[in-house]
Amino acid sequence: MIRKIIFGVVALVAIVGLYGAYKPLPNGLTLESQSYTVPNSSIDFFSDRTYIDKGGVRHSDQQIFDEAFRMIKNAETYILLDMFFFSDFLGTATTSHRQLSKELTDLLIEKKTQKPDIVIQVITDPINSMYGGYTPDHFKDLERAGISVITTNLIPLRDSNPVFSALWRTFFRWLPDQGLGDIVPNALDARKPNINIVSYLNSFNFKANHRKVLMTDDARERTSGFSVLITSANPHDGSSAHSNTAIRVDDNLWQDVLRSERVVARFSDANFIEPSKHILDTINDRNGDVRVQLLTERAIEKKILELLAELGSNDEFDMAMFYLSDRDIVRALKQADERGVKIRLLLDPNKDAFGREKNGIPNRQVAHELAEYTNGNTTIRWCDTHGEQCHSKLLIFKKNGANSIIQGSANLTRRNLDNLNLETNVLVSGDAGVRAINDAMAFFNASWNNTEGKTYSTDYETYAGTSIGKTLWYRFGEFTGMSRY
Length: 485
Fold this sequence. Notes:
Number of strands: 19
Distance between the termini: 42 Å
CATH architecture of the largest domain: 2-Layer Sandwich
Mean pLDDT: 92
């Protein structure tokens, strides 16, 4: 009898695990929008860069949230914000930081006070409330000001850590939130209230709404219209010194941003407020010669693999990336190297995490694999980090004068690319005259070459990782989902 009960429980957990890993996704996810053509003037590239000067002093040059705040200040009727990490969390970091979460909160409340009829919607990830363990004070302030805060419901998404999630879905999810009291210290931030055991266990599902998108009715050179900012940067104090990138697009693309965010609100059982019909009827988006396309979830990987496969001998590919671990991408890079593509990889050494030291996984193991494999076409450098992270997710494809960039929220990992996390990236394509692409290239080249006496990067040998044990752990974590990358 006991054996039958044990067998039945194991079978139930296995069925729940398989369903969680392969269940149908909410309708509308994994979006590859149509390819729009917009004017060169409609697209801008922005970056945040931290570097060491000749005297050994760390500096941070920031553009991204300055631009985001400018867009919010200029908004008239509509602001839509989807940000993964919207928090004042610092960890144990002691280096200087910017109070981005407070700046953003204060600005949104000020805008709502000035324009009571403006629609402001904030979509975010449950990491900010430690998965429902408490409500952050700044979210309470936003709600009191009449600003909608939507916490994404991650349960409808597939499970990226299916072994644990099978147990959680079967047993732990049904525990009453407050049945055991708030007895667990907040692992994210010791200054915050304790949380309940359900919220704590929920954190080990390892999935997220990882998007970083802003949409406002602020468009240059026009009296009406919408602009979108798609970035790798979070309004998070502990991340404020990270290196990041962003693209702003003023025409056409907003339609698909609206569509993709509407889906998130819908499966989170939240009321999604549309822009007024009056505003929509006045928009006259412009066309031009530069192609832009919105990519979410697995569509990001599909497009990256497609563009990599098109590169041949004497073509070039540059990448600045926080996490690189996805096996399909690694194989595609090897194949591109074999074809003679000139590849430059600028990677975070995965050593800094809000005052704590990380173990170098997965980038050092992947870098070692690619360095050992190359036919002389792949060169690797590390971001020279000092407490901050090289958090960009920027890819540059150069093929016979036809250039493309992809950038946004997605790291190149299984979790980010395999329909597990929610992610938003943008593809920009055009000829050698596209300003935003040229600015992205300049950003990469300055970081690669340490121009103007500023140290952004260091040689591959500085953080070369050859540990077999760590390599096995990276491959295990990537395959099973039992990792945080």
